[in-house]
Amino acid sequence: MVMNPYRVCIVGCGRMGGTIDEEVRETPHGALPYSHAAGYTAFERTALVAAADVVEEKAQYVCDKWRIPKYYLDYREMIAQEKPDIVSIATRPGNHAEITHFAAEHGVKGIYCDKPLCASMEEADAMVAVCEKYNVKFNLGTQRRFTPGYIKMREILESGQLGERRAIIAYTGGSALWGYTHAADMLLFLASDSPIEYVQGNVAVEDADFEDNRTEGDPGIVMGFIRFQNGINAISILGTAYEFEVNCSDGTARSLNNGLGFQLRKRQGQFDEILDAQFPPFERKSGTVGCIEDIVDAIDTDTETQGNIHLAHRSTEMVFAIVDSQRQQGRRVPIPMENRGLYLGRW
Fold it and tell me: pTM above the 0.90 mark?
C-alpha cells in the first residue's frame, strides 16, 4: 500500500534550513543531502509544503531552490494555515523552545530541531514536557548518530568483541552550543546513551561573565570529563580532526577525520597484542535523511526516535554542566544540575 507523504514545514531558511549543501558539495565530509530542505526532498515519505523566515529574501530563495509551494514571514501563521505533520526548526537556538511549544500545541506529529537544542536547561525541561504531553516524535540535528559508520562503531562496542568499554575520548572542542553539541551527542551515543552521573570541565570564559548567570557569547569548551552511570568515563580534549576513540579491555575503535574513516584494533596474535583489524564495511548515507527517516518511522509505529527529546535533553545537560563546572571553579557538577537558569549566548 502506498502511503501519502507527511506534510512538512521548515522554520528558518538559513544554512541548515536550505543552503548549506551549496557549501559542502565539493568536500569529502559527510554524505549529501545535508540541509533540512534537501533531506525532505530526497525522501519519498515527506513533502515540503511551506517554509518560513523573518527575512523574506531568504524564505523566497529557499522555496525557489527546493520547489516549496509557499513561504511565510511568521512561522505561527504557517503552522496554523498549513497544518503540517512534521516541523523542522532551523533557526538560532533562542526560540527553539517557543517554536517547539507552538508546533506541539497545534497538532504536529514530529519535530526535527537543528542543534543546539536551546539556550538553557529551563528551556530544555519545557521542551521535554511539551513533547511528552503531545506525544511528539523528536530528533535533534546531531546527524552523526544517524550515519552508518558511527552506527557500526557502536554495534562493535556493544557486541563485546572488544571487551569492556573503559574510556571514550573526543578530540574536539568548539563553542559550547554551536560546536560542542555534536561532541556531547557522540560521547553519549558511544556510551550507549547512558544517563550521566556527573560532569567536570574547563571553558574559555571570564569569571565575570557569569555574574548575571548568562554568558555574553557561546563560550569555547577546552576540556570536559563525563562519568556515565554505566561506569564508562569520557573525556574531550582540543583536537583538529573531530575524531572519537573508545578504549576497551581488548581493543580500540576510532573514527578518523570527521567520519571519513574508521579504525579497529583487537587483542590477537601470538603475544595477545592490540593489533590492527578490519573495520566492517558500511554504506555511505546522509545523516540528515537518516534523521528524517527515523522520525517518519517513529510516527508510523508510535515508538521513540533514535535521537529523541530525552536524549537531546541529556546531551544538552552535559554541555551546560561543563560550563557550570567552570562557573564553579572546576567543581564536579552532579546530574541533574541545579543551575537550570544558566543561559548561554545572546541570541
Answer: yes
